[in-house]
Amino acid sequence: TWTTEAFVEESIREIKAKVGDKKVLLALSGGVDSSTLAFLLHRAIGDKVTCMFIDQGFMRKGEPERLMEIFDRQFNIPVAYVNARERFLDKMEGVTDPEIKRRLIGHEFIHVFESESEKLGPFDYLAQGTLYPDVIESADTNVDPKTGERVAVKIKSHHNVGGLPENLRFKLVEPLRKLFKDEVRKVARSIGLPEEIVRRHPFPGPGLAIRIIGEVTSERLNILRDADFIVRDEISKQGVYHDYWQAFAVLLPIRSVGVMGDKRTYAHPVVLRFITSEDGMTADWAKVPYDLLETLSNRIVNEVKGVNRVVYDITSKPPGTIEWE
Ligand code: XMP
Fold this sequence. Notes:
The chain is of the alpha/beta class. The protein has helices at about 5-20, 30-45, 65-75, 85-90, 100-120, 130-135, 180-190, 195-200, 220-235, 290-305, and strands at about 25-30, 50-55, 80-85, 125, 170-175, 245-250, 255-260, 265-275, 285, 305-310. Helix content is about 40%, strand content about 15%. A 5-stranded parallel sheet has the order 3-2-1-4-5, sandwiched between helices. About 35% of the residues are buried.
């Protein structure tokens, strides 16, 4: 029978045998797959693996700091932190079209990835948290016709980038390729990754940038980050985080009139998006208790400057998508 301990030992052996003393690059995203991967690679080959974390500035409140803390302090795994916040934000200036926004973020990610890996490298291998369903999906596209070996043609968390440039076509090491998501979670838990990573709701590669409708500015990022934090804080406190597939806030660029104290306000609405789902392919809007909606609405309007209205999205997928962009 399959056990997490046997899997960990076997993968460490396999990584050692495959990689030898070659150098490996790993891009941490903060999710369960890349975090588990970092642990396995580091246990197998120590400082031959370089874990790189690109902070594009679109993560949630406290998330980059927390990730660094977990790897640095708890696991003693050094992480090369790349602060690319300015670069990404500059790219967002004047951009309102969702597809262009996604494409620009994807391309910028590749640029930063490329220049940073040049600085830190050279590397022979790229470690990717490919899971079994991804292997099936990309069966032919990722195989080098000459060697038959799997190579990186895309970077996993940014599916919508055209493809990697020729010089970034690393050979791949993919220790999770035989696992399903629930098995990765078991492994992650057994090696001591905290629950906040193990059972984190799915979070898109472009992050909060695609939850700000219209132009992404630092002011809007701050507003959304605070609203999103209240959502996570409240559902964690009430012990209902895992009742939902995803639960998040979306910031709208329009403004509406409100009144606070004896003053008229003119500020942004925040949309609450809570959904239940099996796999993210289809989803239902969640029948969230009124009490929770009330608490969230009060807290967001009172605690987040720049927001004076909270609305609830009652659209399932299809016809809606989970994200707004
Ligand atoms: P949609 O909005 O298409 O989302 O119904 C389905 C699921 O995919 C997530 N999502 C992404 N994940 N990169 C990712 O890694 C992305 O660009 C991306 N866009 C959407 C979304 O959060 C939901 O779980």
